[in-house]
């Protein structure tokens, strides 16, 4: 299920800010001990409809659909609406900070969601040294100071501080250096295809259904011949169109099987399969186990 900002405030504080509107950018920062009870050892698997950057101090285990990552001492954790997870506390010493914000908060001010840390196939957790942790704490404390300040430009300062955390993470795991070039026609086609594919997710309710699920569907939407689309993707990604679609459908299937109580037929429907048996065959072909077996493992 998806946790909204309204759900977050209602659950943690039993109230919702009057200024909270989906068409208005929102930002806030909290100490972890103020929003997570020491009596809670496991936060349930869910999506959030907002972005979150957390400084976690204390041992935890973060569970994604098909992997778990243990934080042994302290780390930065990046979360977006596309990255559902659950969290297990491994000791009682849980401190740190959480900053939450919507994409609208950065309207006309950069594009944080474009960073790999906020994308499903990126790195989301960055272990910190003691020195790096102290620097991150200082950034969050500055955020808290800015929030209560009374000058108009304080929100720009908060945006800069978020980017400071993002860039700090990029330095820990630098991306390979590439030569910047203007995208050619094949690259433009590939980028549009991937954008259309990703726009169909996340799936938040069993009545929602992906509309594009074959190469021909995407080619028609993009007004290109399917052979042209196939050639462009093979040239730029070295993968087939069908293969890329299948990978993304499989990723969402894992998320829905682990993160919802929907039955297999409902999940099959949302992912574009007309019959549950077709979904079962697709899942077993790629993972060698059935959806039901994956869910209970």
Automatic annotation (TrEMBL):
The keyword DNA-binding applies. Residues 187-297 form the HTH araC/xylS-type domain. Gene3D superfamilies: Homeodomain-like. InterPro entries: Homeodomain-like_sf, HTH_AraC, Tscrpt_reg_AraC-type_HTH. Keywords: DNA-binding, Transcription, Transcription regulation. GO terms for molecular function: DNA-binding transcription factor activity; sequence-specific DNA binding. It holds the Pfam family HTH_18. It comes from the Bacteria. This is Helix-turn-helix transcriptional regulator. The lineage of its organism: Bacteria, Pseudomonadati, Bacteroidota, Cytophagia, Cytophagales.
């Amino acid at each position: 299920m998806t946790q909204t900002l309204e759900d977050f405030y209602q659950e943690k504080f039993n109230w919702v800010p009057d200024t909270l509107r989906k068409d208005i950018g929102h930002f806030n920062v909290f100490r972890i001990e103020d929003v997570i009870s020491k009596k809670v050892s496991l936060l349930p698997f869910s999506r959030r409809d907002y972005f979150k950057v957390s400084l976690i101090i204390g041992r935890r285990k973060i569970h994604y659909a098909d992997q778990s990552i243990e934080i042994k001492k302290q780390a930065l954790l990046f979360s977006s609406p596309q990255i559902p997870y659950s969290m297990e506390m491994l000791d009682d010493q849980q401190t740190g900070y959480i900053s939450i914000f919507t994409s609208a908060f950065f309207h006309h001010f950069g594009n944080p969601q474009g960073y790999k840390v906020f994308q499903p196939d990126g790195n989301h957790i960055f272990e910190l040294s003691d020195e790096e942790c102290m620097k991150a704490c200082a950034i969050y404390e500055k955020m808290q100071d800015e929030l209560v300040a009374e000058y108009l430009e304080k929100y720009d300062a908060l945006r800069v501080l978020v980017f400071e955390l993002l860039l700090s993470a990029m330095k820990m795991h630098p991306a390979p250096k590439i030569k910047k070039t203007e995208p050619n026609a094949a690259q433009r086609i590939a980028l549009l295809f991937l954008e259309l594919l990703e726009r169909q997710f996340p799936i938040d309710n069993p009545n929602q259904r992906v509309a594009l699920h074959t190469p021909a569907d995407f080619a028609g939407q993009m007004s290109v011949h399917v052979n042209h689309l196939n050639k462009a993707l093979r040239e730029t990604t070295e993968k087939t169109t069908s293969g890329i679609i299948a990978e993304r459908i499989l990723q969402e299937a894992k998320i829905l099987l682990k993160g919802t109580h929907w039955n297999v037929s409902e999940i099959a429907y949302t992912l574009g399969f007309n019959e549950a048996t077709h979904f079962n065959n697709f899942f077993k072909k790629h993972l060698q186990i059935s959806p039901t077996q994956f869910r209970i493992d």
